[in-house]
Design a protein that fits this description.
heterodimer, A: about 475 residues, mainly alpha, B: alpha/beta, Rossmann fold, 5-stranded parallel beta sheet, 3-stranded antiparallel beta sheet, 11 helices, 12 strands, about 15% strand, globular
Chain lengths: ~475, ~325
């Protein structure tokens, strides 16, 4: 059930309608909170079970592990070790078993063995949620939740289930216990964020998808210019696809009274790799920092160890995306870039602020970082590492082939520029605002703009078979 | 009361937004309104001088002729009549670059194009007698097809006179809704969106085996068309433009079944119809210039309708053929 599909639309209407009915019937009886939780939990497991009922069982089991571990881990650290191990092992089995078996057999020169395993929907995301919950409770950041329903809902909350954002458990639990889940105000802001996300996903990202797909499937057939354009197209596609998904998830959650922080902060405005990772997939980079980089020692154990920790974090971050050497290469490229930037930044400390775009140098840095991100995405997008090199070779050598100047790349590029310009114009004290630009739908002109945006979404949406990129992670 | 006030604002906003969106649709994607063609030469025609805008597949802003077809004007006499589907009516790029116009230029003949969206070979063959009677072409009728593998039931329908024409909505709510430019493309988009998941589930696999009665029905259908053309004193040319697909190794594959192609070609020959297969010409276009005959800068590479390159190649091949043939 895709978040942009008709089936999901009907499903969500049913869930949302149930929440409004519950609000009308149960508010006075004081049972609204528990009824809401029940509706959301059932909906989340139906959503998961729609893909495959066995996925729902996997999710329920890991929720039980997280729930039980959190209740006991403070008294005995072994519980935490067991809980985290179980989480990692199930992720490894589902997602990486074939990769490691393949690498091992390859090393020994044996024939490749493939074990047929179905990867549960959103397994990477809910595994990380489980680990962060258990570790946070162990660290004493907050108390373990005594309600299994709450923990299971934290793990399975359907808007963020397939592709995040990865939430902090305490913030989620607090909101679950609030009575005002559905309201006109939440509907007004949520629906606007959803439309914004759908415009990004269905109009921009989905139009770019077939072009990227065709060129990356047969780089030898295309002229270097086309291959370069397809690489830029993928850079734009992955941003609009994933940030669009995040916006839809955030908007749907907002409609149901749950506030989720933004997952993207105009990443292509970053001037260096460090800034990029503070703006791109924020919930994952924060997770990696908190639960991997810091436990490895962060920057507290000397220069060399800091570099190793950075590289290791990014390599694992790459591997998290998928079981392939190309993802590891992508992580490694960014890890090395972070190491180089950190060394460079120390010598030039204090010269540049993240929100400062007043100089030519700042824009040159932004453009350089954008091109570097493009380079990294080649490895991320290619099916195999050898394919990535084929793409790079084609871009550098030009060669004979089809020249296809796909117009949607320029449309998407213009949209990115407009989005960045609007965000920069709303800067406060040098900082780019991370709030959504929302309309007051009690005013006629705002309603005109909103209806026009919805109409444009319908008129210009690409309606083909294009799933969310991060849906497979 | 507060809700009613808001509802009033929303209603006004909806009307204003519809006006804005209609303006946008008029430029971005507007395929006009059609009505039943009283002559029967085609199932329907666009309104006279209808404006058509296409930015979803190619880029074109066109004005139909007074009869509702994509021509600069209506000639006094017609030497060559073009019939076919949306590939022939060509609403995707500048009207002066389509195969019909180029053929006219290259042969020095008067050409009229009655290509219409949805008019596959079945509809064209069904409409052929009416088209011959209406336009009375002097030399040739050129008929386009993107498939040589026909459906037996549909061929039988044409032969039996039970084939249904493409419908037009000339009254009722659908007609009035069409008058608002934003509504038709939005309706079409929503319709596709709602059926998208069904399509994924219903992937049928067509049998590659040729049905027993296939050859007989095909020959009868084409023989009848050949006879109709002869009676009208014209040569019927059927040209086939195969769908193409760019392969990972950089070559282009043409999705044609050899068995069906041979059957079609032989049936045409028996019926006295000139059959032209564009595969080799498209292949040459790609191998020498890396150009594909289908697809546009805003669509998938090599997929969808014929583009200006494809039309140019078709016009060149047809012109050579027409120039070589004796005038009857």
């Amino acid at each position: 059930m895709s978040l942009t599909g008709f089936t999901f639309f009907v499903f969500f209407l049913a869930v949302y309608g149930s929440l409004w009915i519950a609000a009308a019937l149960c508010r006075k009886s004081g049972r609204l909170v528990s009824v809401n939780k029940a509706i959301l939990l059932i909906a989340s497991f139906v959503f998961m079970g729609w893909a495959d009922w066995r996925f729902a069982i996997c999710l329920a089991l890991l929720s039980a592990v997280a729930y039980g571990t959190a209740l006991r881990c403070r008294a005995n650290k072994k519980w935490l070790a067991a809980g985290v191990t179980v989480s990692i092992v199930q992720l490894a089995v589902f997602k990486y078993l074939n990769f490691f078996v393949g690498a091992f057999t390859g090393l020994l020169g044996l024939s490749e063995q493939v074990i047929q395993i179905m990867v549960p929907l959103g397994v990477s995301f809910y595994t990380f949620s489980a680990i962060s919950y258990m570790v946070d409770v162990y660290r004493g950041k907050y108390e373990a939740n005594r309600s299994f329903v709450d923990v299971a809902l934290f793990m399975s909350f359907f808007p963020k289930l397939t592709s995040g954002p990865i939430l902090r458990a305490d913030a989620f639990f607090d909101q679950l216990d609030a009575e005002h889940t559905v309201s006109v105000k939440n509907l007004e802001s949520g629906v606007q964020i959803v439309v914004c996300g759908m415009l990004k996903k269905m109009v921009l990202a989905d139009h770019l998808a077939p072009f990227v797909e065709e060129v990356y499937a047969a780089p030898a057939a295309f002229h270097g210019i086309t291959v370069f354009l397809a690489t830029v197209a993928y850079t734009l596609q992955i941003y609009f696809d994933f940030s669009g998904y995040s916006d839809i998830a955030i908007g749907l959650a907002r409609m149901m009274g749950i506030t989720i922080n933004k997952n993207f902060d105009l990443p292509y405005l970053a001037k260096n790799p460090t800034e990029f990772w503070k703006r791109w997939h924020i919930s994952l980079s924060s997770w990696l920092q908190e639960y991997l980089y810091y436990p490895l020692g962060g920057n507290r154990k000397g220069k060399s160890r800091t570099k190793i920790n950075l590289l290791l974090t990014m390599l694992i971050g790459g591997l998290w995306h998928g079981a392939d050497w190309s993802f590891i290469a992508w992580g490694g490229i960014h890890g090395l870039a972070l190491i180089v930037h950190k060394a460079f930044a120390k010598r030039r400390a204090g010269r540049s602020a993240p929100g400062d775009y007043g100089t030519v140098k700042a824009w040159v840095s932004t453009l350089a970082m954008f091109l570097f991100a493009n380079f990294g995405w080649i490895f991320f997008r290619a099916d195999r590492i050898t394919d990535a090199f084929a793409v790079i070779r084609r871009m550098l050598t030009g060669g004979e082939g089809v020249v296809h100047l796909y117009s949607w790349v320029f449309v998407a590029l213009a949209a990115l520029v407009i989005e960045s310009a609007v965000a920069l114009s709303r800067r406060k004290g040098g900082k780019v605002s991370r709030e959504y630009l929302l309309l007051d739908l009690s005013k006629t002109y705002s309603l005109v703009l909103f209806f026009t945006a919805v109409g444009l979404l319908i008129l210009t949406a690409y309606l083909g078979d294009t799933s969310f990129i991060y849906g497979r992670f | 009361m507060a809700f009613l006030k808001w509802f009033g604002k929303a209603l006004i906003a909806f009307v204003l937004a519809t006006a804005i969106l209609s303006g946008f649709a008029y430029v971005y994607s507007y395929d006009g309104i059609h009505h039943t063609n009283p002559t029967g030469a085609t199932d329907y025609v666009w309104r006279p001088n209808e404006h058509i805008a296409t930015m979803t597949e190619g880029f074109a802003w066109l004005k139909m002729d007074e009869a509702g077809f994509n021509n600069a004007g209506i000639p006094d006499t017609v030497d060559v009549l073009f019939m076919g589907s949306s590939h022939t009516d060509d609403l995707h790029f500048s009207a002066d670059k389509n195969a019909a116009v180029l053929t006219g230029e290259l042969t020095g003949r008067s050409v009229y194009n009655v290509g219409m969206s949805g008019h596959t070979i079945y509809r064209c063959l069904d409409n052929l007698p009416a088209a011959l009677a209406t336009y009375q072409p002097e030399e040739f009728v050129v008929l386009e097809t993107d498939t040589v593998r026909l459906n037996v039931d549909r061929m039988n329908e044409v032969l039996n006179g039970t084939a249904l024409p493409n419908p037009s909505y000339e009254s009722g709510i659908v007609y009035y809704m069409q008058l608002i430019p934003a509504f038709k493309p939005m309706y079409k988009q929503l319709d596709v969106w709602m059926s998208l998941e069904e399509e994924e589930e219903e992937q049928s696999s067509e049998s590659s085996e040729m049905p027993e009665e296939y050859l007989g029905v095909l020959k009868e259908l084409l023989a009848r068309a050949g006879q109709q053309a002869r009676e009208a004193g014209v040569t019927l040319i059927v040209y086939y433009h195969p769908p193409e697909k760019l392969m990972p190794d950089g070559t282009v594959r043409y999705k044609t079944s050899k068995q069906y192609l041979t059957a079609f070609s032989e049936a045409c020959e028996e019926a006295g119809i000139v059959f032209v297969n564009m595969t080799e010409s498209f292949c040459r276009l790609y191998n020498t210039q890396h150009l594909l005959a289908h697809g546009f800068d805003n669509t998938q590479i090599g997929e969808g309708h014929l583009n200006a390159n494809g039309h140019k190649v078709i016009a060149e091949v047809l012109s050579e053929l027409i120039n070589q043939r004796e005038v009857r």
